[in-house]
Amino acid sequence: MSPLPACPPRPSCVSSDAPPGAQHIEPLAFGARTGAAWTALVALLERTPRVELVEVTGTTIHAVFTTRLLRFRDDVNLELREADGLVAVRSCSRVGHSDLGTNRRRVEALREQLTAALAG
């Protein structure tokens, strides 16, 4: 387990490894079901429009999300930390200072979609 890349000093990045503050976001936590959640997460990302899976290993994912209107590319890094029962997450815009909350909303949407996929 290694920390995710640090967020740059701008509000267009959120990370579960960031210290408490504006850039911190809670990890995706699924306890004993984290292994199943990881499998469901990969499947979810594979079918999500405008997402390119750059690298997928047994414990890490690097995905690039392209925004619909302006075609900005945002990097999303995920790391399975099964012993801790969670998936660490980082979502960061490549350009611009502010993202108007896009990266935070993206992570929360992934959390909701993953929770729904595991429930159904």
Helices and strands, with pairings:
Blueprint: E1 13-15, E2 28-29, H1 34-46, E3 51-56, E4 60-66, E5 73-81, E6 86-93, H2 102-119
Antiparallel strand pairs: 1-6, 2-6, 3-4, 4-5, 5-6
The Cα radius of gyration reads 13 Å
Number of domains: 1
Large-scale geometry: globular
Q: Give the helix tally.
A: 2
Kindly provide the name of the CATH class: Alpha Beta
- What is the annotated CATH architecture? 2-Layer Sandwich
The H-and-E topology, N to C, reads as: EEHEEEEH
Q: Quick check: average pLDDT? A: 94
**Residues in helices, as a percent range:** 25-40%
Question: Could you give a short account of the major beta sheet?
Answer: 6 strands, antiparallel
What is the strand content? 25-35%
> If you consult CATH, what is the topology?
TATA-Binding Protein
Low-pLDDT sequence parts: none
